[in-house]
Amino acid sequence: MEDHVLLKLECRGEVRLVEMEVTMEKIQAKFFELFGTEVALKFTMDGDDDEIAIKTDEELKLAQRFGGKPLKIVGKPECAGDVFRWASKSLANHSVEATPKDIAKLMDVLKLKQRRLVKFGLAPRQALKNYEDYDLADDDRDDDD
Length: 145
Description:
Elements: E1 5-11, E2 14-20, H1 24-35, E3 39-43, E4 52-54, H2 57-66, E5 71-77, H3 83-92, H4 100-109, H5 115-119
Parallel strand pairs: 1-5
Antiparallel strand pairs: 1-2, 3-4, 3-5
Helix pairs in contact: 3-4
């Protein structure tokens, strides 16, 4: 693949223009950095409205060849997820290494609820198991209530 390629990255209606080395791992990391979420990657070919999934570096190469210039990659947020996995990735962005299992153990020892990870920006609200019932106004409660 080329060293650096101009890309349009879109997530939740917001579009960002970036120039970067193109690999699946780097694009996923850039989406997480820019939009704070893990995404499933898709693109469309010129003159075609079908959204085509990109899951491998080989598919990414094909997208580069047939997806137009600059290549527009749309990230579809993965809403559900493990709050501890999200927190682990967020901490890694700040050079703090902690596995999801380590974070779960620490939260248990400190007797803190998972919603604290959301409150402090380490995980999106959707990562909570019952995020529909999650009320942001409850964030100010202490965990021992």
